[in-house]
Write a structure and sequence with these properties.
- This protein is of the alpha/beta class and about 350 residues long.
- The protein has a domain of about 230 residues: Rossmann fold.
- About 35% of the residues lie in helices and about 15% in strands.
- The longest helix has 22 residues.
- The chain is globular and about 55 Å long.
- The chain binds nicotinamide-adenine-dinucleotide and uridine-5'-diphosphate.
- Uridine-5'-diphosphate binds next to helix 5 and strand 10.
Length: about 350
């Protein structure tokens, strides 16, 4: 099957360069993944509908003759004219609550039909399929930290359900499709990841706080700020993706990928203020409905099966991210400058 030659892999089709499709490749994580795959000697096709992704995230990569961008929506069957793939990564789905809640039906269909279309393509090409699932499958967890064996506590009719249940269904599709058609599938559950190339208007907490601090605008804490998250730096996560893809075919996951260092949102605000030297005030807004109270990955399975653990300290990762936003925020379109707020957040909590 696959033979390793240096960093690249010689495929069974013996074309020299293995060929990979990254759906959602122009987004935050997808662009880092495309870059890592090109560095490893792959031919990379980045497929994206540019809903939250940006051409600027991957424009540098177009200098490579082995990189191609295809504008396409994964809800529709894949376009003709694509090469045969050895590997398919499914990252196509908005990840930030304001963006995935803006059109919930579209988010649910992206998870369902998008995953189905990519699975069918994987079967046709004899490719491996990777699914970017999420810690949101655990909902507002009763078990802490969350191991993969925990089935979760998701409100299936709440405003987050389009995404949480969409990803849960995408996992089911992958496992059942794999069993029925012998497609090798690899499922990772990603916990809150941050880093350069997040959008200033992404709406997630790390980018919101940094952009607000840099611009001297109020830091918006939703609720009292005592809810926790565990933040993983993007480079660590991408290393985990690549290790997952190299596990034996019988290992499908799901496997948690994230950094178990858990902090409160209020603590994150203090750290961002200190690192940016900002004098922004902190304001308290209404907590979004169904916002999980705490979240921390149990990463022992990733340690055992992938030999993976995150390496980047929060302070280092945040400094890199602050540098990125300092270089980009000044160049933003004025319409893109205000960090989005959750619905009904105009009031102080
Ligand atoms: P992102 O919003 O930056 O990237 C998503 C990409 O998918 C964008 O480029 C977007 O334009 C594209 N996309 C969305 N709908 C599409 C469609 N119908 N057809 C084609 N392309 C489409 O978010 P991200 O943080 O890079 O997340 C990437 C993936 O990882 C998502 O699937 C997300 O659910 C998952 N994930 C991310 C995190 C995180 O902390 N970053 C956590 C859990 C899961
Ligand atoms: N959050 C916040 N202020 C913001 C954005 C988010 O206090 O400007 C909170 C949010 O309510 C949640 C946590 O930060 O408790 C993480 O939110 P994010 O949207 O980044 O990710 P997710 O909720 O998907 O974990």
């Amino acid at each position: 099957m696959h033979k390793h030659i240096g960093k690249a892999t010689l495929t069974r089709r013996n074309r020299g360069r293995p060929s990979v499709l990254v759906a959602g490749g122009a987004g935050f994580l997808g662009s880092h993944l495309c870059e890592a795959l090109l560095d490893r000697g792959y031919r990379v096709v980045c497929l994206d509908n540019f809903y939250t992704g940006r051409a600027s995230n991957v424009i540098e990569l177009t200098r490579s003759a082995h990189f191609e961008i295809v504008e396409h929506d994964v809800v529709d069957p894949l376009p003709a004219g694509l090469p045969e793939f050895d590997e398919i990564y499914n990252l196509a789905c908005p990840a930030s609550p304001p963006h995935y809640q803006a059109d919930p039906l579209k988010t649910a269909m992206t998870c369902a039909w998008g995953t189905m279309n990519l699975l069918e393509r994987a079967r046709k090409d004899g490719a491996k399929l990777f699914l970017a699932s999420t810690s949101e499958v655990y909902g507002d967890p009763d078990i802490h930290p969350q191991p993969e064996s925990y089935f979760g506590n998701v409100n299936m009719v709440g405003p987050r359900a389009c995404y949480d249940e969409g990803k849960r269904f995408a996992e089911t599709l992958c496992i059942d499709y794999g069993r029925a058609h012998g497609v090798p599938v690899k499922i990772v559950r990603i916990f809150n990841t941050y880093g350069p190339r997040m959008r200033a208007d992404d709406g997630r907490v790390v980018s919101n706080f940094i952009v607000q601090a840099i611009k001297g605008e109020p830091i918006t804490i939703y609720g009292r700020g005592d809810q926790t998250r565990s933040f993983c730096y993007v480079d660590d996560l991408i290393a985990g993706f690549l290790s997952m893809m190299e596990t034996p075919e019988s290992f499908t996951g799901p496997v948690n990928l994230g950094n178990p260092a858990e902090i409160t949102v209020a603590h994150l605000a203090r750290v961002v203020l200190a690192l940016t030297g900002s004098e922004s005030q902190v304001v308290y807004r209404v907590r979004p409905v169904d916002d999980p109270c705490r979240r921390r990955p149990d990463i022992s399975l990733a340690g055992r099966m992938l030999g993976w653990e995150p390496e980047t300290e929060l302070l280092i990762g945040l400094e890199n991210t602050i540098d990125y936003f300092r270089q980009t925020v000044e160049r933003l379109d004025p319409l893109d400058r205000r960090a989005p707020q959750p619905a009904g957040s105009g009031m102080v909590a």
